[in-house]
Amino acid sequence: MKHIVLALFIGLTKVSAQAQTYPDYSEIYVNDFADLLPEENEAHLREKLKELREKRGIEFTVVTIGVMSDYGYVGEIEPFATGLFNFWAVGDAERNDGVMMLVSRFDRKMRIEVGSGYGTAKDAPMQEIIDEAILPRFKRDDYVTGIESGVDAVIYDLTGSFPGEFDANLAQKAINRGKSLLDWLGGWIFAILAPLLALPLQVYRRWQRNKPRFCPNDDTRMVRMDEGWDDKHLQKGQITEEELKSVDYDVWECPKCDHVTVEAYKAWFSPYSACRSCGYRTVEGETEILEAATTSSTGRKRIDYHCLNCDDRWHVVKTIPRKTSSSSSSGGSFSGGSSSGGGASGSW
User: Disulfide check for 254: which of 15, 172, 215, 288 has CB 3.0–4.6 Å away?
Assistant: First the structure.
C-alpha cells in the first residue's frame, strides 16, 4: 500500500512539474506581458537597456507578468525568477553577468535576478534599490516610475554611470546631476504649490457646506445633523458611498417642522465609479490581461466591475492596441547566461 501511495505522489508531482511553463520572450530588452508600461515609456526603457548592452556588454531585461499561476506556478517569486532567467539564458555565457527585473503585478511581488557571475555581491545593493527606489512607487500603483527608477539605479550600480552617461566626462556628469537636482526641486515645488492652488477650492467648499440654510416651509434656520445621526435620513447606497468616501452627505433639519434636506458632495479623487444599476458611486474595477499586445497583434484585457452596494457584477473586454514596432536590434536572442539564485526580492 505504501508503494502505491508513493507512486501516486510521484506521479502527481511529475504532472505538477510538467504543468509549469515559462513565457517566451518577444525581444531581449522589455517584455511587458502585464501591459504596465505605456509605449513611450517602454521605448525609453528599451533605449537604456540597449545602450547598456552596446556600451558595457551587459544584458539587462525587464519582464512584467500578470500572475505566476498563469504559468502553472504557485509560490514565492525567487524560484520562478531563477527558472525564467535560466530558461531565457540571460547574460554572457562566460561572465554570467545578466540581470532580470521581474514584476508579477497581481501577485504583488517582484525580483531583481542576477547572473551567477556576481556571486552574492549584488544581493544587498539590489535589495536596497528595491526597498528605496521601487517599492514606494509600487505601493502607490505607480509601476511606470518604479520600474524606470529601478532600472536607472541598477544600471548605476553595475557601471557607475546613469543611462546616457557612459561616454560622458566628469563635467558633463556634473551638469546632468544639476539637471536632475532641478527636476527634483521642480517636483517638490509642485508638491508645495499644488495644495496652495487647491486651497481656494477647499475654502469655497467649506463655506458652501457651512453657510446657513433656511427651511423652505417656514424660513426657520436649519440645523446640520452630526455624522452619527444623519444616517437615518440616508439610503443604503448613500451610506455605502460615505463608507467608501466616494461621496459625503450633509443632512440639514428644520427644528420647527422637521423638514430635511440632504446634500451630496462628491470626492474630487475617488477610485469608485457610478453603478449601472443603482446609480451610486460604489463600483470598483479590476483589470486582467487576457492577451498581451505585441508588435504584430493587438491584445485583450477584461475589466471586472463589482458594485459594493447592490452587488451587481459585470465585465467588459477591451482591445489593447498593438505595440509600436521598435528597431530591429530589439530582437535577437540572449547570450547563454545563467543564474544560481542571486539577487533580491520585494512585495507590496
Answer: 215
**Greatest C-alpha distance within the chain:** 90
HEC readout, the chain: CHHHHHHHHHHHHHHHHHHCCCCCCCCCCEEECCCCCCHHHHHHHHHHHHHHHHHHCCCEEEEEECCHHHHCCCCCHHHHHHHHHHHHCCCECCCCCCEEEEEECCCCEEEEEECHHHCCCCHHHHHHHHHHHHHHHHCCCCHHHHHHHHHHHHHHHHHCCCCCCCCCCHHHHHHHHHHHHHHHHHHHHHHHHHHHHHHHHHHHHHHHHHCCCECCCCCCECEECCHHHHHHHCCHHHHHHHHHCCEEEEEEECCCCCCEEEEEEECCCCCCEECCCCCCEEEEEEEEEEECCCCCCCEEEEEEEEECCCCCEEEEEEEECCCCCCCHHHCCCCCECCCCCEEEEEEC
Which cell numbers hold the place of 159? Answer: 557601471
Question: What is this structure's pTM?
Answer: 0.60
- 260-266 and 273-274: which strand pairing? unpaired
Domain ranges of the chain: 2-167, 168-211, 212-320
Q: Does domain 2-167 have CATH number 3.40.50.1000?
A: no
Strand partners, 342: 114
pLDDT in tens, 194-245: 667 667 877 888 888 999 999 999 999 999 998 878 888 999 999 999 999 9
What pLDDT digit, counting tens, does each position of 20-69 carry? 899 999 999 999 999 999 989 999 999 999 999 999 999 999 999 999 99
- Per the listing, cell 500500500 goes with 1
CA angle 177, 157, 155 (to 5 degrees): 75
Report whether 284 contacts 296 (CB < 8 A): no
Torsion sign across C-alpha atoms 231, 237, 240, 241: negative
